[in-house]
Structure formats: C-alpha cells, structure tokens
Amino acid sequence: MPKLIAGSVRVDRYQRRALVTGVVAAAAFVALAAAPYVLDPAVTSSWIKLFYLITLATMWNLLAGYAGMVSVGQQAYIGLGAYGLFVFNDMGFDPYSSALIASVAVGVIALPLSFIAFRLRGGYFAIGTWVIAEAVRQIVIRFDNLGAGRGRSISNYTADPVFRNMFTYWLALGILALALVVTFYLLRSRMGIALQSIRDNEVAARALGINVSRTKRIVFVIAAMGAALAGSVICIQAIGVASPNQIFSVSYSAFMIFMVLIGGIGTIEGPILGAVIYFVMDLYFSQLGLWYLVVLGLLAILVTLFLPKGIWGAIHERFNISLFPVGHRIVPVADKFLPQSSAQPTVKEKRPNGRFRR
Amino acid sequence: MSAPAETANSLLEVNSVAKSYGALHILTEINFAVPAGEAVGIVGPNGAGKSTLLSVINGTERATAGSVIFDRRDVTKLGPEVRAHAGMGRTFQIPRPFTHLTVFENALSGASYGAGLHGKAADEQALYALELSGMMDLANTPAGRLPLLARKRLELARALATRPRLLLLDEIAGGLTEAECDSLVETISGLHASGITIIWIEHVVKALLAVVDRLVCLASGTLIADGKPDLVMSSTEVRRVYLGSGI
Ligand SMILES: Nc1ncnc2c1ncn2[C@@H]1O[C@H](COP(=O)(O)OP(=O)(O)OP(=O)(O)O)[C@@H](O)[C@H]1O
Ligand SMILES: [Mg+2]
After folding, report:
1. pTM for the full model?
2. Nearest CA owner, ligand 1 atom 28
3. Can you tell me the distance from the alpha carbon of B141 to that of A160, in angstroms, rounded to the nearest whole number?
C-alpha cells in the first residue's frame, strides 16, 4: 500500500450515500403526504402519533445523545408548545400557524432557562430540568385564560373533522421532516464534529477549542423548539389539553428516554427505530393495561443488558451501515505519476503499533 | 536556582500559581516564564503536580491563586477553549479520544475549532497533523478501537491540528520502542525547529534531553530546579527527589 501523504488523499463525505438518503427520504415524504388521499383518513391520522413520537425521540437524542444533556424536563417545552398555541390561536391565528409561532416563542423562553439549567451537571442537570418543567407548569396554571388548572380547548379550529385530521397529519409530517432535516444537516455541518466531540469527551473538546456551553445552548434551544412543535401537534389532535398535568407529564420524558435507548442513542437512525417500536407496541399491547408497562420495562432491561448501544447500535456495529452518513473518510487520490498499485480504495486499519514517521 | 519570571519576550508566564482541591495543596507558588521558541522539559516524581500544572496553563483546571499570562494576555480566568484559540495545544497523559469519531475526525475537531479553520483548509490542517504524527495509515479507524500507544499518538496529532504556538505535551514517550522513541524525538525536534514553543513533561529523560533547551523539576508542587538540562539533572535537589525512583 502506498504511503499516504497529505496531497495524495482527499476527504470523502459519503456524498453519494447522503444523496440517496435524501432522494429516498423525499420520496417517502411525498408518499406519506399523499397518503390521506389514498388511504382511509382514520388510518393516516393514527400515524400522527408516530410522527410526533419520532420528532420527540429525535430531539431528545440530539440533546442527550449528542450534546450529553440528559434532560427529564422536555415536557416543559411540550406543554409550552401546547399552551403557546392557545395564546396565538386566541389572537386569531389558525392553529397550524400558531404552532409554528409558539415554537419560536418557546425557543426564546428556552434560551434564558438554559442559563439556569447549565449551572447544574450530570444528575443534578436531569433533576434541574424536571424542576424547571414543574415550575413552568405551576406558572402556566396561574392564568385563567389558559384554563387555569383545568385544561382547555382550542378556540378556533378547522370544524370539518376530515380536513382537520388531514391538516393535523400534514403538520405532524412536516414537523417530523423538519426535525430530521435539521438533525442530519447539523451533524453533517462543521458543528456536527463539535457535537460528536462533546458527546465523546467534553474536557478534550474544550482543550481543542470547542465552545462547549455555546454549542450546548444552541442544541438546548433547538430541542426545546422541537418539543414545542410536538406539543402543539398533541394539542391540535385532541383539540386542546385535557389537563396541564397531562401535557406537562414527566412520562413524556420517560417515553423519550425509552425510545432513544431502545433504538440506539447517539445515532440518527436509532430514535426513529425506537419510536416505531414503541408506536407498534403501544398500538397492539396498550390494552393489556398494567402488563403493557411490564412488557415495556422488560424490553428496556433486555436491550440495555444485551444491546447496550441499542438496536440500531448493534446493527451498525455488525454490518457497518448507516442510513444517514455524517462521517468523513480519507480516500487516496489516484496519482498518474506513481505506479498504479492494487491497494484497496480505502485506507485500511494497519497493525496497531505503527511507527512514528516524519 | 529558580529563575524569576521574565517579562520581556515571554510567550508564557506563570506567576505565583497555586492549585488546591479543598485542603489538598497540589501546587504552591509556581513561577516561571517561557520565551517564545523555547523548548522546556518538566521532570519530577509521580504525583508532583506536573499534569496539574499543565492543566492550569491550558485552562482545563483553574488556578486557585496567581496568574497565567499568555502572549501578554492574562488568561487566568479564561476557559480552555479560549486559550486553544489563542494558540495553546495540549495532550492528555491519560488519552481522551473521541471514541466514536475516526482518527481523522478527531484531528479535524482540533483543526476546525482550535485553529478556527473551515472547509478544505480544516481538512488539510487535520491531514497535515496526521502526517506529522505518523497516523495517516489509521485515518479511518474509529479512535475507540486504537490501542493505548496509538491513542497517545492521537493526542499529539489532535494538539498539532489546532496549529499551536505553545505545545503542551504530557508523557507521550512512555512505552515506545527505541526506534519509535527516536522517531518521536525527531518529530518534536522538527516542531521545535519550526519555532513552536514547547513544554514537555516526560519520565523518559533521554528523549527529553535530546530536545529541550531547558529543564524544570517539580517536586511536591514546587519548582525545585530550573535551568540548563545537564545542570538540573546533576543538581543535588533533583538527585535527592529522584533517589529511589529509579532514575
Ligand atoms: N481532581 C483532583 N482532586 C484531588 N486530587 C487530585 C486531583 N487531580 C490530581 N490530584 C492529586 O494531585 C497530585 C498531583 O497530580 P498530577 O497528576 O498533577 O501529578 P503528576 O506530577 O502529573 O504525576 P505523574 O507523574 O504520575 O503523572 C496527585 O497526588 C493527585 O492525586
Ligand atoms: Mg502526570
């Protein structure tokens, strides 16, 4: 194998594979967007839940899996998304625009909250986010026009149930697509290297010049906005919130953690897979009542014991495939002045104790 | 024997630096200055506080007292990322690789952020660092799969990728074969010759003496010797702390 020198190699970003992913994802998006015209709207509107579950899992993974912030307080932003929707809806915006405006507003609120949360580390951070979520709920229920502690319904919504379901479906699908595109783009961008470095070793990341708290703050705000969008979808689907306790429930965090850990933390594919698994189990087993929770718990225990990197993590390790390539690969550039060698197209791992060379 | 901190032409000044963890005093009253372009070796027994001193210099740890001046700028209260941007690159004695990233991506992290480069320029800087540290053949290997020695070499590659003006090395020669050690010495000498200021902690004194202009000895958190390498190695204080530690 020829010695590689800096001039004779190039950096490959798996552009072709990324393009394939983009094309397939775009086709899937179009097919899903057209689905309500073809299938029974009752079927498609049952997918709304799947869409917001994937959105929630993807956002929690960005937060915990990449930026190392294990939050159990994302329900703060789910709830604020729902309640923000009431606020803008009451001002006269339709529910769908209200969802988008509310998410921006939640981003604005999340920024100062991050300064409080970031004073805490590790387990304290997790508890701190939960406390913040409780505090937010306590504040929200002080407002009579938001239904106080009783919950409330959306004032102006699409009356026709068929159209309402379709609009909600498209909103949920659009939000899901946005969450995935943002995540994929972020991880392929320059900031992706920073995020993955932080995930792997924060001390080294800082010593190499990465502004860890700024990077985390950006992710914290994005994740809050994503949770808010999911929250408003939940709210629109039910034409309101049954009670603040429900929309600010910590069980959302439990499900997010479940989906991400089952699927595979720190990968883009894992949370999607985890959300699908949870959605299917919820669809078929939730009538088992208490036993359903036991099954969920058992599954979580089994996966953490035998597949510590989650299902996608195990698949990735075994077959080395990734549907959303974010990495870099060094490939030699064919040099016409050197005799063509039969070297493999990629640099292979060599014996571990290679020498220092100039 | 400890020289007073010079002010003119120093790239780095460490003034009355102390570091303690609660009641545990690790460093007390450390004073020294490093002129631009100099290569300084640090020796001292285990637990003397050498790595802690490096951490206080690059900001991984905050000094409890005293100040750190880099390029005439007081960086004492600045975070390590700011000092990296200012031109400090360090290696960790216990390697801290980004395990899920490839060797190239580890270096790219330093090139993109420490050196502040974008796009192709960052790629090239990272490749250059791999070439310099002899890691090009491992470029596509996930860092988590590297054995210890390669992880240490990755520390060097990553620090070089940040395009440092001051390179802080913490025990990078331990465990190498004679030939590997010679090759490493040649690399560090090359960096020194190119004008990079170097502070190198090393137990392999032979490697150190082949490169450095000056030697500092740290024992129990204070500098007990500072000066020409042969003078420091033969001084009675240094011999005393090393008695029984096998050198
Ligand atoms: N975070 C910490 N909390 C408490 N004590 C610490 C901490 N970090 C280091 N120490 C102590 O500080 C002392 C100096 O440690 P340091 O790693 O700087 O020594 P060193 O000179 O680099 O030793 P070695 O040659 O073994 O690498 C040791 O006694 C160590 O146990
Ligand atoms: Mg040490």
Report:
1. 0.88
2. B47
3. 57
